[in-house]
Design a protein that fits this description.
Blueprint: H1 3-24, E1 28-33, E2 36-41, H2 42-90, H3 102-111, H4 128-141, H5 158-170, H6 172-180, H7 187-200, H8 203-209, H9 217-229, H10 237-246, H11 251-261, H12 267-280, H13 285-294, H14 298-306, H15 314-324
Antiparallel strand pairs: 1-2
Helix pairs in contact: 1-2, 2-4, 5-7, 6-7, 7-9, 11-13, 12-13
């Protein structure tokens, strides 16, 4: 029975009892308690317990009904919060939701200790916000830069880092801004920004920015290939020497550098560069001799070989001997390896 019906029928019962009693006994009755007297019709005295019971029962039902309402409201609110918590976990953010029910607290405590990973397969729920969040996460992991401000990614999260890398790969002008202040970004972001700038921007821009970052060998190789494609705007010999020193180039690295630059550098420029390198860095001598062989500078090669012990530069000495014997071989044909 609903509360409304209970109240209506209870009042009707009280009225009927009062009317019936009053019809058979319309007199009054006096009650005295501690010198306090109260005179009321007998019908009221008879119906008074029923009225008190009615008031008490209604108050009881309203109290527990209100208590149930608060509990239901807490559950409904926690159901909303659990969606927000799942979104936070998906976005690798700290969950700031609060829960009033013990069961939901336990669930979120378990979820907070689990790494959430969105599968590549189709994902769908009845919650549109979670569907949207998952869709945006998939786009980020697929390499797309997502600008949607509703995500509010945690700056230190892996997802935010991936999205930043996506932006680096999508916006070369942003890469330029990174290289202007590389101290504000992680090394991998700075490296990718540098590689993108070298790939897509002019050599003039690259020359203005490359000294702001700490190069590794991959970055150095990319830079030198850029130089080879733009010999008229290339780095100076001093700059190239400084970079190779900082990168701790070995003889194989110098040989690779010679092969990269020989296709576009003028012979005199390339010889001059490696001559300077050989004077400052011993392990670059083989690359210098290699360059001399490329341009058939036989007399200069003999001078270089004569200035080194007989046990050094054996492959080049063998190549000279073969040339003296009238046999034409290249360094590559001898399968030379350092």
């Amino acid at each position: 029975m609903g509360l409304k019906k209970y109240i209506v029928f209870s009042i009707l019962l009280i009225v009927l009892v009062f009317g019936y009693v009053f019809s058979i006994e319309p007199g009054e009755y006096k009650v005295t308690i501690l010198d306090v007297s109260l005179t009321l019709p007998i019908a009221i005295w008879v119906t008074l317990p029923i009225v008190l019971l009615f008031i008490g029962s209604v108050a009881h039902m309203m109290f527990y009904g209100f208590k149930s309402y608060l509990k239901y409201r807490s559950i409904a609110k926690d159901e909303e919060n659990i969606s927000e918590s799942i979104k936070a976990f998906l976005l690798q953010k700290a969950d700031k939701s609060t829960y009033k029910t013990k069961s939901f607290k336990n669930i979120t405590n378990i979820l907070s200790q689990i790494d959430f990973e969105v599968r590549d397969a189709s994902f769908t729920t009845s919650n549109e916000e979670i569907n949207k969040t998952v869709s945006l996460i998939k786009e980020i992991k697929a390499g797309k830069y997502v600008q949607d401000k509703t995500l509010k990614l945690e700056p230190t999260s892996k997802l935010a880092h991936q999205n930043l890398l996506n932006k680096v790969n999508a916006e070369v002008d942003f890469c330029v801004e990174i290289l202007k202040k590389p101290m504000n970004y992680s090394s991998d972001v700075t490296k990718q920004a540098f590689l993108n700038v070298v790939e897509d921007k002019s050599m003039t821009t690259v020359k203005k920015l490359y000294e702001n970052v700490t190069l590794d060998k991959e970055m150095g190789e990319k830079l030198f290939k850029k130089c080879a494609k733009n010999p008229e705007f290339t780095l100076s010999n001093e700059e190239i020497i400084k970079i190779t020193k900082n990168l701790d180039y070995d003889k194989n690295d110098f040989l690779e550098l010679a092969k990269v630059l020989k296709e576009s550098y003028q012979p005199d420029e390339l010889i001059s560069l490696f001559d300077e390198l050989s004077k400052q860095i011993d392990c670059s001598t083989e690359a210098y001799v290699y360059v001399l062989f490329e341009f058939e500078m036989i007399d200069t090669i003999r001078e270089v070989l004569s200035s080194h012990p007989d046990a050094d530069l054996m492959a080049f000495r063998a190549l000279i001997d073969l040339k003296d014997a009238g046999k034409q071989y290249s360094l590559e044909s001898l399968c030379y390896k350092s």
